[in-house]
Design a protein that fits this description.
- The complex is a heterodimer of chains A (415) and B (332).
- Chain A is mainly α and 415 residues long.
- Chain A is built from 17 helices and no strands.
- Chain A is globular, with a radius of gyration of 23 Å.
- With 332 residues, chain B is of the alpha+beta class.
- The longest helix of chain B is centred in the last third of the chain and has 49 residues.
- Classes of the chains: A mainly alpha (415), B alpha+beta (332).
């Protein structure tokens, strides 16, 4: 009897070992797996983490002052400026791709649908991680859900929407996880929820992408009038849509460049055409956004401010980082040149981050003395941001290497 | 209609009118932190006498207290700073309160000092510098309260803007939202960081006393009293001493009015008072956006559900036509 048990346990152990090696080590043995990890990228990543992780530990042991120069006049720095305000529009990929595919019926985009959803989910997850670093008492993060309802606060809206949308995106991506785990029954349930989840995603995304902009409606005295506008929530929402399209191009370009062996033929063959299609969408989105911004200047009659220092910076953002990439998109699509469209996508993504940093850091408190000196982050803050960004990439790569995202799982019919 | 609606609604029609003017119920709730539909319903059911003319703007609590700082009277002795420090049991300052070298830089309230006094050159008389006391202005409709997602702030009927550290998770949106850069954060505490700011000595006011700073001021530069009275006093001083004061009570209208008021001999912008603020409370800026939220929540599922259904419908027609086409081919 006991030998029988032993045999069973051994078989189970053996099962687990093969499962483990298949699923987690990508079919390699431990030594092989470790050897495969010794790449220049991973070594640089390890170096960043070896500095950054202790810094993050210090933040939680000794307080915020160890990793930020945030002050009473400047309560928010890079953690929110980059991680939340910059990260969330680039994570609109999930809602934009799911809406295009499931609701509007852009069925050809199927090969990059999951990549879009994963980019969105990971983006939100990490926006929350940046927030957890920055919150004074992160262990109270659930307070707006249970303890106190600040219904008059735009941030209350953002908190609820980010939390629910993170869950929605997890359900949206879960078929990929369940296929990886070969769980047929649960996957069927998850797939059935898709349309409902997609519509929930549209509601939550339109509301909180715009709400992030609406948060700044409260600071007419602090935000430079060229960026402050009663339309700011329209700017945030409309720019997040082209940001999403550009970001899908960026992530798919990086995937085919660095993880080609994880892509299938369908992905590789369809990507150039899909990239052009996304580029076309992005161009339209950028021109719409550009017109909105011009309406914003006209509405407040701020033309005279364009001929000032901040005005030149505003024009650089608007012409250099919106109009120029929009024209590049247009040119690339017209000439069917995928490389130009890809370049425009990287360019547009930089432009979005610049805009969000302008609103949250550079043009905020512009009238305080020595403002520009105050906003240069200390090396600790920059390193923590770099560390979290590195972890973001590592986990993203870990998932792409294992789950059916860039390729379809042959055992499952198309989702 | 307009005439009628100006009457207080406590007749038999009161309930209907209350329902019609649910918005004023909302106004109340925003202030008293119920903020839920259930509470509004409860308020209506109880038939609380709500004025039937919906006041677009919250007029502030009647009879709330306030303070009036007369910047022409302040001599920069920092007695108020010292009294505040003792009253709130704050840590000892880096430099003693009689050290005038602190005036060499412009200071702001911090987690160790709820109020500070800054010195400015007097353009009228260089031998008589101007001193400006800074602390929380206790707005009638505070932006910190509006911004807080957990309701850690409240506006008390006494006039104070009160902060509750037990509810705060440290997002610091209140600091971003405050037009006066007042809330200070304790970045040095790992486990119990909190906002620190002037409390308007609420326990003292409740005990029938004036604030510690007002009591300590040896020259009467800080007057404590009912806000409405203070505005009258300020107006009177300005009217009786033309030339001595600029014709402006700072805080009477700024961001909807503050319970702390100032009168000055030089324009306020020369003393670093923010002068680019709207007259209406900052919550007005976000109202339009927030009121669109329930519309989106309701309309989007129907709108996008319809788009989805329309496309499926077209697909079906297409497939049917394709099927019919095949049948015809077969017939041939």
């Amino acid at each position: 009897m006991s030998t029988n048990m032993a045999v069973k346990t051994e078989a189970r152990t053996e099962n687990f070992r093969s499962w483990f090696m298949n699923k987690l080590l990508m079919g390699m043995t431990w030594p092989d797996y470790f050897r495969s990890l010794l790449t220049p990228f991973n070594i640089v990543a390890a170096m960043i983490l070896s500095v950054g992780l202790p810094l993050i530990a210090m933040r939680f042991l000794f307080g915020l002052y160890t990793v930020t120069h945030a002050s009473n006049e400047y309560p928010w720095g890079l953690y929110l400026g980059w991680g939340l305000f910059g990260g969330v529009p680039l994570s609109a990929t999930g809602f934009v791709m799911a809406t295009a595919y499931y609701i509007f019926g852009y069925k050809r985009y199927h090969p990059i649908l999951r990549l879009g959803v994963l980019t969105g989910f990971m983006g939100y997850l990490f926006a929350v991680i940046y927030l957890l670093i920055d919150l004074g008492r992160p262990w109270r993060i659930y307070y707006p859900m249970i303890i106190g309802f600040g219904t008059q606060s735009v941030l209350f809206l953002v908190a609820w929407h980010v939390a629910t949308y993170l869950s929605v995106q997890f359900v949206e991506f879960s078929p990929a996880i369940l296929e990886w785990l070969k769980s047929q029954r649960v996957r069927r349930w998850a797939v059935m929820l898709t349309i409902g989840m997609t519509i929930a995603g549209i509601i939550l995304s339109t509301l909180h992408q715009s709400a992030l902009g609406a948060m700044y409606l409260l600071v007419p005295g602090k935000l430079h009038p060229l960026w402050y506008s009663s339309y700011i929530w329209v700017f945030f929402l409309s720019s997040s849509i082209y940001a999403a399209l550009a970001m899908v191009i960026v992530v798919s370009t990086l995937s085919i460049r660095f993880l080609k062996n994880r892509t299938d033929q369908t992905f590789r063959e369809s990507l150039p055409k899909l990239t052009l299609g996304l580029g076309q969408g992005a161009a339209v989105g950028m021109f719409v956004y550009l017109v909105f911004k011009i309406i914003g200047i006209a509405h407040d009659n701020n033309w005279h401010l364009l001929n000032t220092g901040y005005g030149y910076w505003f024009l650089l953002e608007l012409l250099g980082f919106v109009l120029v990439p929009a024209m590049l998109f247009t040119y690339g699509v017209k000439k069917q040149n995928v490389s130009v469209v890809r370049f425009a996508a990287f360019y547009a993504v930089v432009g979005i981050i610049l805009n969000r940093l302008n609103v949250s850091i550079i043009a905020l408190n512009w009238n305080l003395p020595h403002h520009l000196l105050h906003i240069v982050p200390p090396w600790t803050e920059a390193t923590v941001v770099l560390t979290i960004a590195t972890i973001h990439i590592l986990i993203f790569r870990w998932i792409l290497n294992r789950m059916p995202v860039l390729h379809a799982d042959p055992e499952y019919e198309s989702h | 209609m307009t005439k009628e609606s100006k009457q207080p609604a406590d007749g038999p029609l009161a309930e209907d009118k209350n329902e019609e003017k649910g918005e004023s119920g909302l106004h109340m709730n925003r202030r008293v932190f119920l903020g839920t539909v259930g509470a509004i319903g409860g308020t209506l059911l109880l038939g609380r006498p709500v004025k039937s003319h919906a006041a677009e703007d919250f007029e502030g609590y009647p009879n709330s207290f306030g303070l009036l700082t007369d910047l022409t009277a302040c001599v920069g002795c920092r007695s108020c700073e010292k009294a505040c420090n003792e009253e709130n049991k704050l840590p000892a300052p880096d430099k003693p309160f009689d050290d005038s070298s602190v005036f060499e830089e412009k200071r702001m309230p911090t987690q160790k000092a709820y109020t500070v006094v800054n010195r400015y050159e007097n353009p009228k008389d260089k031998s008589k510098p101007i001193y400006r006391k800074i602390q929380c202005n206790h707005c009638k409709e505070p932006a910190c309260l509006t911004s807080c997602p957990i309701h850690a702030y409240s506006k008390t009927p006494e006039g104070a803007v009160k902060y509750n550290p037990d509810l705060c998770f440290g997002c610091r949106y209140c600091m971003t939202a405050c037009p006066f850069y007042i809330p200070a954060y304790d970045y040095w505490s790992a486990f119990e960081p909190r906002i620190m700011k002037c409390t308007m000595c609420l326990p003292r006011i409740k005990a029938g006393k004036m604030t510690a700073c007002a009591e300590a001021c040896p020259v009467g530069a800080i007057t404590f009293g009912k806000r409405e009275e203070l505005i009258k006093i300020a107006r009177e001083r300005i009217d009786k001493n033309p030339g001595k004061y600029v014709n402006h009570i700072y805080g009477e209208y700024e961001v909807g009015g503050t319970n702390w008021l100032y009168i000055s001999g030089v324009p306020f912008e020369q003393l670093d008072f923010p002068t680019n603020l709207p007259k209406k409370p900052l919550i007005e800026e976000t109202k339009g956006f927030l009121s669109a939220v329930p519309i989106v929540l309701t309309a989007w599922p129907a709108l996008f559900g319809t788009i989805y259904a329309a496309l499926r419908h077209r697909e079906e027609i297409y497939e049917e036509e394709k099927g019919e086409g095949k049948k015809e081919e077969v017939k041939k």
